[in-house]
Amino acid sequence: MLHLRMICPPARTDDVVALVEKTVGATHLAVVPGAGRDPHGDIVLCDVAREAADELLDALRASGLPEVGAVSVEEIDLSLSRRAQRAELAAPGSGADAIVWESLVEETHEESTLTVTFLAFLTVATMLAACGVIMDSAILIVGAMAVGPEFGPLAGLCTAIVRRAPRLAWRSVGALLVGFPVAMALTGGFSLLMDALGLFHEAKFLAPRPQTSFIWQPDAFSFVVAFLAGIAGILSLTSAKSGALIGVAISVTTVPAAANAAVALSYGDWAETRGSAVQLALNLAGIVVAGTLTLLAQKWFWGRQRARSAVAASGPKG
């Protein structure tokens, strides 16, 4: 379940309480009059089943409460309450499958922001992949995939398309368009430095690399694997039982492709540079397409669940 803490002007408290009371899946309602100091107002507390939270948050936003007060949402790890159990049973669908759109937008907004930390992670991942390319090491390639933070902006772009949020879309696209060129340029310099130190060798790069040659040889499977990874990534992001976001796109080769392109460019190998660039584009496109379709499917599914719940609630009683 989720815990909501609201600060609202006293004149709106009754309206907010009414919204909570009519939400199927909400419980543990409490009002603390005059407890709010900044902003001034009443504190309204409640718990709500995850599968019912999106409807309540939409209603609170439509009421204008975020503009004159505040709404905070927290995950509840443990709730020992029969009322909470009944609320979860009454709410439509399963909490593990539910999407809390406000939370998703906020999370992807943070993950898709172009920051020094994002650039550092992407650059380190690309350099790590460059070492894997030269050594023909699948282990290093997998490690680079896990370190790479690029799924954040990709998920942000998918969310922006579905939610029609242009600012989030531009933020996500900007992180990708700036992040990858910067990481590739720095990795190219890193490759030249390692070559000057005698740690990278052009002969190794040009030699057969059976473990990593797939990086610069895109085919139909490149898009298929990226598509499946995009579905897994979005499900991991939206599910209440998901693991950490890092590494959800472990099966795709965005970072390794960027690294291979940078190393190939530093050695003047235009064929591998082109192949790696195509691989990178296919993977980015596959993740965005799959992620967007997955979110649209989830939006449609929960729209039907909410419609069924509304029909059941308005049906004859007794």
Descriptive overview:
The chain is α+β, with helices and mostly antiparallel strands and 318 residues long. Helix content is 64%, strand content 11%. The chain has 13 helices and four strands. It has helices spanning 13-21, 50-62, 65-68, 82-90, 101-111, 116-135, 138-147, 151-163, 166-196, 202-206, 220-238, 254-266, 270-314; strands at residues 2-8, 26-37, 40-48, 70-75. Helix 6 crosses helix 9 and helix 8 packs antiparallel against helix 9 (166-196). The longest helix is centred in the C-terminal third of the chain and has 45 residues, at 270-314. Mean pLDDT is 88; it is low at 243-248.
Cα end-to-end separation: 29 Å
CATH class of the largest domain: Mainly Alpha
How many extended strands?
4
CATH topology of the largest domain: Glycerol uptake facilitator protein
Rg to the nearest angstrom?
24 Å
Number of domains: 2
Task: Decide which structural class fits the backbone.
Answer: alpha+beta
> If strands are numbered along the chain, what order do they take across the biggest sheet?
2-3-1-4
Identify low-pLDDT runs. Answer: 243-248
Helix content: 55-70%
Biggest sheet features: 4 strands, antiparallel
Mean pLDDT over the residues: 88
Written as H for each helix and E for each strand, in order along the chain, the element string is EHEEHHEHHHHHHHHHH
Per the principal axes of the C-alpha atoms, what is the gross shape?
elongated
Strand residue percentage? 5-15%
Q: What is the CATH architecture descriptor of the largest domain?
A: Up-down Bundle
Number of helices: 13
Transmembrane segments: 114-135, 141-162, 174-200, 220-237, 244-265, 277-297
Pfam families: DUF389
InterPro entries: DUF389
Protein name: DUF389 domain-containing protein
